[in-house]
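Honest question from a wet-lab person: if I give you the sequences of every part of a complex, can you actually get the arrangement of the whole thing, not just the pieces? Trying it with mine:
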Amino acid sequence: MCVAGTRWVQTELLQKYPKANLRVYAVWFNMLANDSRSKWPPTLLTDARVIHRWDEPKTLGTWYGQRTSSIRLQLTPDSKWGDGEVLWDSFLLYGANARWDDVPTDLIHWGRTIVAGRETLKIDFEKLFTSKR
Amino acid sequence: MTDRLRGLIAAVAAVIMTATWTPRPIRPYVVADASAKLTDLRGVNELKTLFNQDAGKVRLVLLVSPT
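Yes, you can. This is the full assembly:
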């Protein structure tokens, strides 16, 4: 599902908004039995605005997983999340004014899975970047 | 205009077009980065630093597994 979601981000968001003032942080880690760093798909998210990181100890997914109860209002309507330990197959969209001190501010929406929340993400991109297509 | 004159004009036009035409590079629609790299995340603080360096941009965090 992660592969499908990231492919959708590449084709439906990044390719359709090539001029959008945007940064994407793709943080990869093992969650499924067959996952490994060697299976990272380098051709999936090829846009120059994407920064890729490998997170072997699942640091970021754990960090977010411990905080989802405080951002539940921004969860997309189609998403499901039960405040698990590690948040994954997920996106979090922040506005241009966001600042990260204790926690990142200006969260617009987050979703899980990426595929489940994609309609909201698509609408958010249309609102943010309509003139950047 | 005679057929001969028309032919001459067409020939001159063809020479000019040939001399001035240069192929346009084929530009991919997507801003692609052929050198996409995967490096280790050095903790939450690294992402925090990157996040704040990119202030002014909309930011999208993806938490994903590779399969």
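Two things worth pointing out. The longest strand of chain A covers residues 22-28. Chain A touches chain B through 64 residues (CB under 8 Å).
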